[in-house]
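#lab-general

N.A. 3:47 PM
ok so I finally got the sequence cleaned up, no stray characters, all 904 residues accounted for. can someone with queue access submit it? mine expired

B.Y. 3:52 PM
send it over

N.A. 3:53 PM
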Amino acid sequence: MRATLLAALAFASPLAIATAAHAAETGIVADASAPKGKLPDQARPIAYRLDLTILPDQPRFSGHAEIDVTVKAETKSLYLHGRDLTMAGARAIVGGKTIPAKWAQVDKTGTARLDFAAPLPAGRATLAFDYDAAIGDSPSSLYRVKVGTDWYSWTQFESIDARGTFPSFDEPGFKTPFTVSITTKAGDKAVSNAPETDVTRIKVDPRSAAAQYARAHKLPVPTALDVHHFQPTLPLPTYLVALMAGPYITAEGNAPPVGARTAPLPLRIVATKAQAGKLDYAIAESPRIVELLEKYFGQPFPFPKLDQIGSPVMPGAMENAGADIYGDDIILIDGNATTRRKQNFGMIVAHELSHQWFGDLVTPAWWDDIWLNESFANWMGYRIGNEWRPELNIGVGAIDEALSAMDTDALEVGRPIHQIIAENSQIDSAFDSITYGKGGQVVAMIASYLGDEEFRDGVRLHLSRHRYGNATSDEFFQALADAAHDPRVLPALKSFVDQQGVPVVDIRREGGQLVASQSRYAFLGSSPKPLTWTIPLCVRVGEKRTCSLLDKTSMAIGAAGPGAIMPNAGGAGYYRFTLSPDDWKTLIAAGPTLPAGEALAADDSLWAAFRAGKADAATLITAAKTMATAKDSNVAVDGGLRLAGLRATGLIDDASLPDYRRLISTIYGPMLAQIGFDPAAGAHKSDDPDRQKLRQDLVRMLALTAQDADVRAKLLAASDAYFAGNMQAIDQAFLAPMLALTVQKGGLPAAKTMLERALTSEDAVFRPRALNAIALSGDPAIARWVFGLADKRLRPTERINLITLLATTRETRDVTAEWLLANYDTIAAGNGIFITSRLPQVLGTQCSAERAADIQAKLGPKVKAMGAGELEFARTVEEIRHCGVLKDAKADEIAAALKAAVAG
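B.Y. 4:20 PM
back already:
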C-alpha cells in the first residue's frame, strides 16, 4: 500500500460518528482473557464463502459468511474477528449437525468470541454467520461515496479492517481461497479478486426485508437485483480481499504474452462514470509495467486477471490481489498530465503491482514483517517506474523519500523498521516513513552493495521457496545470502532493520588515506543512545569509487586522492555524512555537476549538520544558490524548498520575511525568465518532462513564496479568463497556484465561491486543488470558517486535507492548532486506529519547548486514552521541542544570513 499523510488521515463526519454510536449500541462484552494481538492457536481457516448484498445508496449492507476451519482441540468457545457487525445468527456445522453459537465482540479493535451451545469437537467444521453492518464514508472496511448522482462502494482492508465487513480470522498468516458472490442493484457492476463467472437477475419481493428497509428510509425500492458470482481465488489473507459494487465504467484490454507468460493477461481499468474519458492512459501504459515486473521476478503475473480501480477518496493505493485500488488522481490521468502526476502513476502502479508477487504471492507471516512488503515495493516502484519511462526521472524520488525519513528516524522516540507487534493497536504504526522511506533505501543500499543480478536472484529464490504461502524477514535475508554466497549481507541488513537511528559517517583525509568514522546522528539538543552499524559504504573521490563494509567505529577506507569527496556515491546509502570545512566547500562547488542522487544526499547532509549545530546558515544559502544551476529539477529547487520549511516553522520570522522573499526571487526568478512561462494549456508541451517539472516548481515558489508581482499577475489574468469560460487559459501544471492566488485576492467571499465550485465538480484535477487553494489562503478568517463547515458534500478525507494544510501554513498554523487541541476527541472519533494514529502529525510545524509541553499536557492524556497514535504523538512533541531548540540557537543567525545574502 502507498499512502500519503494528507490522504491517509480522515476527518470525523456525521456518518463516522453515527457508525461509532452504532458500535456503542451493539456493545462490547468485557473479556479479560481476550487476545490483544495474535489469536490463540485454536483453529485455522481452510476456505471462505462470502455472499454479500451491497446496495451503495443504502447505509448498511448484509452478509452471509461461511468459514471452513480445522479445530485443534475440543472447545466451548473460539476467538476470531468481527467489528461492529450486527449478528442475526451464528452457528457451527459439524458432520451435518448444527451447533448454535452466541457471538460477542470483546474489544474495540474487533476481536470477537463464539460461545457454542455444545462443545465444538476437534477436526473439520464450518462456521456460518448471518449479519449486517454499516457502510462507512471514508476508506476503511466497506465504504461508499456519492459521485454525481450515483453511489459506489469499495473496500480497504489493510491492515485489520476486513473484520468490519465479514467475520474472519483477520491475520496475514492465514491464507485460504475465497469464493465470493455479491448482490447488487440491477445493472450495477461488481468487482472482486477473481474473474466473474456469471450474473443472475432476481426479482425483489416487495415484502422482503430489503424492500421494507428502503421504504422505511425513503430510499428507492429495488424491483430486481443482480447476483455476481466469482471464481474461487488463489490462497489469500483477509487483508487482500476486495469487494466493490456500483454503476462503474470500464476500459478493457490485456497485457500481451511475453517471457514466461504464454497467454494474454486480462486487464481492466474501473472508474466512476464521472471519470469517463480518463481511462485510456492507464489501459495503455499498465501492460508495460506488468512486463517489466514479470521480467524482474522471472515468472508470470501470479493471478488470473488484473483490475485497476479508481476511488475518489482512496489515500494512495492498495495491492488487493488482482484488484488494485488507487486514488482517482493517481490512476485516471491523460497524456496532458503534468510530469509529477505521470511520475506518481508510474511509481505507484509499479509499487502496487510488485506487491502481487512480493506480498500477495508471498505474504508476511505476521505484521512484524509487513515492513518487508512495503520497503521492497517502495524500492521496486521507483526502480521499475524509472525503467518504464526513463525520461520522467522517477528513480531519484526514492532518495528524496529516504532523506525525508531520516528526520523521523533521527528522533529519540521511534522504532526500528522491524518491530515487534504484540497488540492490534500497534499494527498501523508500521505504515510510516520508516517502513517506506528508510526501508526502501535500505533495500536499495543492499542491492547496490550486492549487485543487481545477485540481489534479483535472492528475490527470485525467496519467491520460489514460499509461493502462495507466508514468509518472515529472516527467511528473506537468508535467501539473499544464499543467492549471493555472501553471509556478510546478514549483519548489514540486521543492523539497519533491527535498530532505530541514522548513522552519520565522518570522512577525513589523514596521511594520504581516507578515514571513515561512524556515530549516531543527533539533532541539536538531543542525546540519543549511541549505536553502531555495519554500513555498506560507497565513497567516490573524483572519478574513483570504492565500496566497503564499515563495521567498526573508525577505519581507513582507501587512498584520499584529489578532487571532491562524495561519501555517498550514487546517493543509495542510508546514512548522512560530514566533511572538513574545505572538503565541504569543494563538494558544494561541484554540486551542480553531481548525479542527482548524490547532490540531494549532499544537500541533506549539509542541512542535517546545520540542525545538529555543526554548520551555519550562510553555508545553506550558498549551497542553495549553487545547486540552483543543476540540470536536474529536483536538485535545482531543493535548497528553496528547504528554506520554505524554515519559514513554515517560524525559524524565519516575520521581520525577515522581506529578505527571505527577495532571496527566493533572486535565486529562482532568473531561472524562470530563462526557460519562459506562459500559463496557457499546452504552451510548453514540447519541453522535456524535467524542464516542465522545473517550471511548475519555479512558478509555485515565485507566486506563493516570493510573491513575485509579474508571475502573480500572469496567473491572476489566467484565472479571470478561466472562470470566464476559457478552459485553455491555464495548464494543469499551474492550476494549483492560480486557484490559491484567486482565493488570496478575494478573501472569504472567494473562498466560499471556490468551495462551491469544488463541491460541484468531480474532476480529479480541479476538485482537490480548488479545496487546497482555500487552505493555502493564509487567512485566519478563512481558517475559522473552514472549522465550522458542515456541508455534507465535503468528503471526510477532503476535510482533513483542508485542516492539515491550514495547520502547516505559517499564517493559519497557530489558530488551527488551537482548534485541533480543543476538538481532538471529536475529530478522532469513529475513524479507526490507522487514521487516529496519524492525526497528531498535523501539529508538527509548531516550534518551541513551551509549545511542546503545552501540547503534551493538553493532548497526551487524550491520545493515551484512545490507545492509538501514541508513537506519532510522542514523535510530534519531540519534533516541536527540537525545533524550539534550533530556533533559540539559530534564528538570529538565519536572519543575519538572509540580510547579508540579499545585500550582496
